[in-house]
Amino acid sequence: MKFDYEVLIIGGGPAGLSAGMSLGRMSRTALVCDDSRPRNAPSSHLNNFPTRDGIHPTEWRRMVRKDLEKYKTIRFFEGSVLSVEKTALGFVATFESGEIFHFRKVILAYGVEDKPLPVPGFQELWGKSIFHCPYCHGFEIRGSSLGLISNNELTFHMLPLVNDLASDLILFTNGKAFLGEEEKGLLKRNRVKLIEEKISGFLYEGERLKAVSLENAEVVEREAVFFHPTFPFTLKSRIGESLGCERNQFGFYKVNERGATSVEGVFACGDNVSPAHSVLLASASGATAGAGVVSALLGEEFKKNLAE
């Protein structure tokens, strides 16, 4: 069978671009599909990335795509992949352009969708005064009056990180807290205030948060807040599920150390495989999945030549 490309990479963010570079370095053919929905689009800075700390996310992606130009085996499709079906020999994918291509392997690099609180001000402040990652945004707001919006089993993973950055911290559980007495005692000993009232909105000027408003009409002054998502995560595409890829309790694809999913020939990387979400870690995950695909492709060819 003739394949149009060896590898289909669904997602043109840090994970997909880095997977493409691993494949390009070994002269494997790949089509990177980018539907222009980067998760960090609201952010003006990309941080915690050596040599590129503080760069605009759009500029970072432009630079990586420029780097990929020298790898002539890597091509781009600007748009969405509508479906992917597994065949006896590989995969057939249908694109929004109506084109249909055949591939030997697939890399799912399309990340996750953030689910905003459905209250006024959240969307306007997302990536500006409301953040998801202390490592990505905490340094710039250290010493501020901060809030953490979280109410799940990983709350106490995030809380010490945010507390260390804050001049004072409030934990907003946005409803009754799922905390035991021991956990509530920890909050008191660390001088973290607990507010269980529902959030009704955010007051702001420009990109600066001024206060969190509550349904009981109370207004709580804060300079920035971190938002811990609820589980399971929503992925940007259901292609992995349509192929039968298993997910864990947090919504992430189950992968091995090389990025291989539970479906033969399908790999996954980036934000859809781990709760540790940053450009640097997504990029590293993509490089790993790309190398895993290279190993699989060359291993198959080596065994085929040996048999012949």
The radius of gyration over CA amounts to 22 Å
Straight-line distance between termini: 17 Å
Oligomer: single chain
- Going by helix content, strand content and strand pairing, the class is alpha/beta
Mean pLDDT: 95
Specify the overall morphology.
Answer: elongated
Order of H and E elements: EHEHEEEEEHEHEHEHEEEEEEHEH
Number of beta strands = 17
Question: How is the main sheet built?
Answer: 7 strands, mixed
Keywords: Flavoprotein, Oxidoreductase
Organism: Leptospira stimsonii
Protein name: NAD(P)/FAD-dependent oxidoreductase
Domain FAD/NAD(P)-binding: 5-139
Helices and strands in order:
Layout lengths: L4 E6 L3 H12 L4 E5 L22 H12 L5 E5 L2 E6 L4 E5 L4 E9 L3 E2 L8 H4 L4 E2 L2 H4 L7 E5 L5 H11 L2 E5 L8 H9 L3 E3 L3 E7 L2 E7 L4 E3 L2 E4 L6 E2 L3 H5 L22 E3 L10 H29 L1
Parallel strand pairs: 1-2, 1-6, 2-3, 6-17, 8-15, 9-10, 9-15, 10-11
Antiparallel strand pairs: 4-5, 5-6, 7-16, 12-13, 13-14
Describe this structure in words.
The structure is a single chain. The chain is α/β, with parallel strands linked by helices and 308 residues long. It is built from 8 helices and 17 strands. The strands form 4 sheets. Strands 1, 2, 3, 4, 5, 6 and 17 form a 7-stranded mixed β-sheet that branches. Strands 8-15-9-10-11 form a 5-stranded parallel β-sheet. Strand 9, helix 5 and strand 10 (168-172) form a beta-alpha-beta unit. Helix 1 (14-25) runs parallel beside helix 8. The mean pLDDT is 95.
In short:
The chain has 308 residues and is of the alpha/beta class.
